[in-house]
Amino acid sequence: MQNRTLEIGVGMFLLAGILALVLLALRVSGLSTSSTTDTYKLYAYFDNIAGLTVRAKVSMAGVTIGKVTAIDLDHDHFTGRVTMQIDKRVNNLTTDSTASILTAGLLGEKYVGLSVGGEDTVLKDGGTIHDTQSSLVLEDLIGKFLMNSVNNKDAK
Amino acid sequence: MRKKSLLERIRLLGRSAIDIVGVLGRSGMFLMHALVGRRGIGGGFQLLVKQLYSVGVMSLLIVVVSGMFIGMVLALQGFSILAKYGSEQATGQMVALTLLRELGPVVTALLFAGRAGSALTAEIGNMKATEQLSSLEMIGVDPLKYIAAPRLWAGFISLPVLAIIFSVVGIWGGSWVAIDWLGVYDGSFWANMQNSVNFNEDVINGVIKSIVFAFVVTWIAVFQGYDCEATSEGISRATTKTVVYSSLAILGLDFILTALMFGDF
Q1: Mind listing the pLDDT tens digit for each residue in B225-255?
Q2: What is the DSSP track for B161-228?
Q3: Does the beta-carbon distance from A6 to B96 stay under 8 Å?
Q4: B63 and B210 Cβ atoms separated by less than 8 Å
Q5: Out of A10, A24, A106, whose CB is closest to B53?
Q6: Closest-CA residue in chain B for A16?
Q7: Cβ contacts of residue B114 below 8 Å, gap of 6+?
Q8: How far is it, in rounded angstroms, from Cα B183 to Cα B192?
Q9: Cα B89 from Cα B75, distance rounded (Å)
Q10: What is the ipTM of this complex?
Q11: Which of B53, B164, B171 minimises the CB distance to A21?
């Protein structure tokens, strides 16, 4: 009888451990059961991807529809190439869709925002989005602002 | 005190080096003998269950309570700093990453060394002092297989489980403080956490850390008990050594493992 309670205790202990691991997987790290097979790949070339990181989300109208899987430099054109995995269910992105790098909040993380155009043809797996808008670099903006104020002073 | 000659000092240095190498060799042999090879008599599973109960289940309370409080404190401190920058919804991310990567494995291992490791050393040391180990040998039972092996396995299994439970309870405590008390919006709390925590990188690496700690702590504890002087002083010294050595080993190894896992080189 003593042995029985002991074994039940150990069994419950191990069960709690497994349950905790499952909880960590699903609730904390957001590991979803859907595999990468129900996504397709899209590329986009940006003049400046400053601040965008791998695993950043790709969203459309505020809804997350994919994530950034790789960022590398296009060797010939010196532009940043962003590889994205898009959910298969979103299969009606037109070829003239635009991609822009946006910021969540003032200092938040960067993400890619997509918006559709009006073409009839849709992007296939491995397609490229040509119409892109680069990320906003605060230093450039300040530089432009300063230049403007200097020019204004000269004009007076 | 008599002044020591130069030769005497060199002799002492040599002897301490030989002692250290001797202990390392003996502990390695001890581990090999205990874990590898044929088991003498049956009932191994029963012994393991008994040890799992006393090593793992009995440590559950201290791990759960300290995990909850550490998670709550992390949320409180993190919130007060992050709120200054207007990004209090990142509290969840901070609590989860800190617990999964560092505090979960390390604090659990330290608690485990204090709670279970010292008990293992004292128990085995006392068995040695009262000559129970020699009696076992006399009746033809290998004490390494019968006494040491189940305790080692119990430690290896239970510490990772305890560390996972610690992290979960800590995150739960942190979310309780952040969401219910400090008023962080719960949607962004969990979303931020899920965005930043990578299962393979953070959770699995944390578990690997705790497996390494489990190995080291249990090894030190059982070996110190087995190798101690068979007197009451010897037992007390061995128990102290267990806690000190395992704490130092945990903290040192943690740095090395963190550098290997999360360092960028």
Answers
A1: 988 888 889 999 999 999 999 999 999 999 9
A2: HHHHHHHHHHHHHHHIIIIIIS---HHHHHHHHHHH--IIIIIIHHHHHHHHHHHHHHHHHHHHHHHS
A3: no
A4: no
A5: A10
A6: B165
A7: B243
A8: 15
A9: 11
A10: 0.74
A11: B164
Q: Min CA distance, B175 vs chain A (Å)?
A: 11
Q: Please answer yes or no on whether A24 and B164 come within 8 Å at the CB atom.
A: yes
What are the tens digits of pLDDT across the range B100-138?
989 999 999 999 999 999 999 999 999 988 888 888 888
Q: Is 0.90 topped by the overall pTM?
A: no
Place of tokens 């003998």: B33
Cα(B133)–Cα(B222) distance, rounded to whole angstroms?
A: 13
DSSP code at position A38: G
pLDDT digits 0-9 by tens, B36-57: 766 555 567 788 888 888 888 8
Domain coordinates of chain B in residue numbers?
A: 62-262
